[in-house]
Amino acid sequence: MANKLLEIKNLKVYFMQDGMELKAVDDISYYVNEGETLGIVGESGCGKSVSSMAILRLLDSPPAKYAGGEILFEGKDMLKISNDEMRKVRGNEISVIFQEPMTSLNPIKTVGAQIAEAMILHQGLSKKEAKTEVISLLKLVRIPNAERIVDEYPFTLSGGMCQRCMIALALACKPKLLIADEPTTALDVTIQAQVLQLMNELKSSINASIIFITHDLGVIAEMADRVLVMYAGKVVEVANVVDIFEQAKHPYTIGLIRSRPDLETDTGRLEVISGNVPDLNSKPSGCPFHPRCEKAGPRCGKEFPPEKVFSEGQIVACWLYSEGGVGNE
Amino acid sequence: MRGFIIRRILQIIPVFFGILLLLFILMELSPGQPLSDLQDPRITAAHRERMLARFNLDLPVRQRFFNWIADAVRGDFGESITHRRPVSELITTALPATLTLSISAMLVSMLIGIPLGILSAVYKGKGIDTVFTIFAFIGISMPIFFFGVLLILIFSVNLGLTPVMGYGSPPPFGRNETLMQIWADRAWHLILPVSALGLSGAASYMRYTRASMLEVIHSDYIRTARAKGLKESRIIFRHAMRNALIPIITIMGLQLPGLFSGSAITEAVFGLPGLGGLLLQAVGGRNYPIIIGMMTIIAIVTLASALIAEILYAVADPRIKYD
Fold it and tell me: Using CA atoms, how far apart are residues B126 and B110, in angstroms rounded to an integer?
């Protein structure tokens, strides 16, 4: 049994808006093992980014509110440690790769200086030592002419190059956990493939755990060991990557997989999940997916189903698999 | 960069002559004229003809325009109709008071406004932000002639701490005093006008800085800086502030020309012998030589500040390069 590097228990993150509590992340639990890549999928606004930004307390608070639960990283609760302790974790033990590489780098500082900053801070390197390190990091992420790029400003680089710099920045202090928040969404498809390939290659050499957030199932298939499916602030299914694609159990997961285009069988129109993602301020009661679910019964609108554990760690939260069923006659 | 500056200056020259031409045309089109019998009913038509001829104001506007340029190139900016003294002399006499007032006021407004704007943005929604925002609101809403008189009432009349008006104590002060004492006396006289002008300027700098800083604070790269584990102070001063101050350069470039003309009201309230008073008087009396002389200076300063702002942009922002 592998060691759990990160364990999230009953995390609740709410946003306060006009005096209302929007439950962006509503009582979720999951863990990441050492050396494992956990993929988190879900539609926009399902809470996948919020739940991972909460790990480093990077959400602006207010409006965000950590309403409950624990985030245990190597046994320490990240929601309880002081700001000073938190800063020692950020960029050092846990680092983040953000979605928009072009805007995530400071436009008026050279990329080298921005990467070096983390090393100088956490590893106590001198400016000169840090620069040498930065150059070798840039080479590691396959940036050509690293010696020249180190002194370039972000606006002179392409999106793909900026994202490589962001990866270099994230790897600068050899973190134990890497949070990749849709790192390829803003890139075009060929660059996306290159960056994914790079990350896959680095995965083995850096020996870090990765939380890979995306709404692209194809990316998940390529990157993840285990997959967590989120819907409207809830975890609806967790399974190994193979099981997700071959024997998904939750109607939402099944719907997601069906709605992917298939290159081999030309079936004409893509299948869709009818309806829309619920707005956070008018979230359905019970299982939030029930208004869009073909198999929903009366019980689904009343309570959120308990987790049902299948073999090999496949966990599903759906009344279909729980005692009593969906409540049909 | 040097090539850019030279090219820019070459571009400025035709713009400058355009402004000058427009100025002559607008003055010709505007109603009223110097030595009108509205100003002095006793004036006779023959007398006015003679005076206009003496100042060459009877010539057609086209000719006056070229004459003025020809004279100006030789350093002759004409003679004031009412003062009977050269325009250049009148302007250089009034310049020191205006420059001292406006440069000190500009420094005061930047030194107060920018830090308060940054603090206000960092503590957005907290008590300190509310206090500063109210201060800025009052500063922007209160007209300077009211604020100035209020200051005089409080500090000069009620408390008796500062002089009511003037650019220095009247003679015999100054005959036996050292230069240091004269400057100290001048500073004492300028405290109120500089505060009045500087604080209202600070209010607008504060609002611009706050808005710019708020935008930067919520940008992605500030989140990246935070995710690196940097201290909040380093994030604000090293990452956010420099980005936030780039747009402030524009405000500075726009305010600079105002320094030469915009403090007219303050000068009037505090009885300072500056350019503002000279200009207002000249416009009222259609004193064409002075109006043209002053407008020339303002035009040159405006064009120069635009150039300075452009150069500062390139210094502050690596994304801007001129070649």
Answer: 23
